[in-house]
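Service request form, structural biology core

Requester: graduate student, group of Dr. S.
Request type: structure prediction, single chain
Budget code: on file
Notes: please return the result as structure tokens.

Sequence provided:
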Amino acid sequence: MAEVQRSEEGTPDTATSALSPVLPPVQPPEESTPPRVDAPSQVAGGIPAVISTMKHAWGEMGAVRGTRLLLKVNQKDGFDCPGCAWPDPGHRSVAEFCENGAKAVAEEGTTERVTPDFFRQWSVAALSAQGDYWLGKQGRLTQPMVLREGATHYTPIAWDEAFALVAEELNALDTPDAASFYTSGRTSNEAAFLYQLFVRQFGTNNLPDCSNMCHESSGTALGETLGIGKGTVTLEDFDHAQAIFVIGQNPGTNHPRMLTTLQAAARRGCEIVSVNPLPETGLNRFKHPQEVLHLLGPGTALNSLFLQVRINGDVALLQGLGKALLEREEAQPGSVVARGFIEDKTLGFEAYARNMREVRWEDVVEQSGVSREQILAAADILARSERTIFCWAMGLTQHRNAVANIQEIVNLTLLRGSVGKQGAGVCPVRGHSNVQGDRTMGIWERPRPAFLEALGREFGFEPPHHHGLDVVAALHAMNEGRVRVFFALGGNFLSATPDTEFTARALRKTRLTVHVSTKLNRAHLVHGLRALILPCLGRTERDVQATGPQFVTVENSMGVVHATRGAVAPASEHLLSEPVIVARLASAVLGSRSSVPWLSLVEDYDRVRERIARVIPGFEDFNRRVREPGGFFLPNGPREGRFTTESGKAHFTVHAMPPEVLAPGQLMMMTLRTHDQFNTTVYGLDDRYRGIRGGRRVVMMHPKDIQERGLAAGQMVDLTSHFQGETRVARRFVVVPYNIPRRCAATYFPETNVLVPVDSFAEKSRTPASKSVVITVAPSEESAALGAGPTP
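Core staff response, request fulfilled:
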């Protein structure tokens, strides 16, 4: 990794950057002081969560404004949390938000502003030397900004000129496929629908999105086996489940409102099994912050059983569960396997059962890292539960064998007949507030013919039918010069993607990069020949168009579509809503080539929803139904016991156990979030539940692995990833002893995204394998034992 000169953090550098021949850094800067390490927390929520909520909300927004906004979060007449996609209960409390949801609202609702004066003071090079936390804390973007060819600073630009600039570049391309249009999961249904319509009228299906990097594996696996790429449960199903398996997920940090659901389940006797390489506080004990009388007690125990699986040992573990259930069935016929369900509703059972008989217990134990006794204990829970829900997140989806991971869950679900009935089913927990809705609206590089036919019929054009570029393919196409314009509707593309240096080279080879954003992020600082930042309204802000106040809609993790209405005045008079940005962009680019009344559609968003209702099944009578309190469910055949595969039946699948890939001295590394983070947005520098404070550049390792390598707690090390003869290096990380399986390591993203090879991705889904990175650890050149805290 090239060494670069960095400015003193917090000090603008407007003179020397222009003279430097070295490109600005693309990775977050190294930290000047090591983090403090304490013992991990034993209880999630409680008084510390209340204090953190108030600190962020009142500190960013002020007490009055902050309280007002928080009381509107996830309310039927309010706005949807800009954080995770966990569904809202039918009966909502006055404070229907979690600690990290409050942080997300505070981040957007901050009173700080990034004005043109700020950009006059700070060059792109100087900004690049600052940390991600610092960049985010500068505040909301207030005006469109342009970085012209050869310039060192962003300068203001009028909206019409900005749209004309994009139109100039797009219309000069030799082919529409020389542009790529990224989408973040924050985007509303209305904006996403208009966006994909514009892109397809322009002539391409190059619509990479954040799904490519998170739950694409879930959609692929479930689509093949159940016939729909979504979960099959509702929030109410959790009230009836007898067992809940939470696999590869940390709800205490990533979906904290889920803890309330799990707490209620545990209190009524539901058995909860968690599977994860790290013991996560949020699945240990939970104190509901709104239960005042319980705040001083020990909290509710959630886990009935914790299985500490090795990183990417999930196929082995799940096959062990399947093998145990089938062995029990052979010993006591009719006691475990749902024979009637399997015969009537499924295909492939015999091949699956034959594969399970051939699986060896010693391989299961070795590859999973979980003892046979513990696996049998989990199988006991599964065998006696008539209603089981399986939940998972990116701990399963970001491996080479990610699709197999999820399909092994489906195998267990089918084995027990636990789908299509109350209190049972599969539940991929989406991480962004509308990532599922964006896909429903057509944000996909591989659109189905039926969707394209309906879209073309409604708008009178012939959409392109060839498949477009996903994230990985788009990165290669930019690097090879085949994509010359990159447009991002939300997100922080540079920091969210794998192989940071490769991504940076890709973006720098384009003629134009455009980011629709609410706040400054690192993606704005790694750009093409020219660059635009287009500031948009946030979820919290009122959206008023020609016909009056507007609302937009989103779809949560469980297929409920509902309205979201902003509650406060926009951060700047110059902000536009995402639907308006897309409509004005389409009008500027397409001109007379399009008969779509773009500007008329966004005068009243009901007009957009009328078009959605005529194109996308399940949205019939959209405008009336979405105005009903709580919204409406989209159709879901498997939830109703109807499998929508081509055969009309659910499919068992057969998978080989992934082979051992570690050479002597190597570790399997996974990336994860801190408790002060949502996706690439860093709210603070503490990971309270894991006991790591004041820093992010850490590598968590088993104490014996540290000792074997001659390292010490607190020592500064370099991490090197290994993939197909290539190596990538991330420098100056602090060693932290942690309760993690041997030969495993955990680090935070985006700091270690540089280690994730762009071509290491999941089979079929092509999701980057950010949870399966082979690394070695060696002392940094300036290494010294800096003194970490106690070994957890």
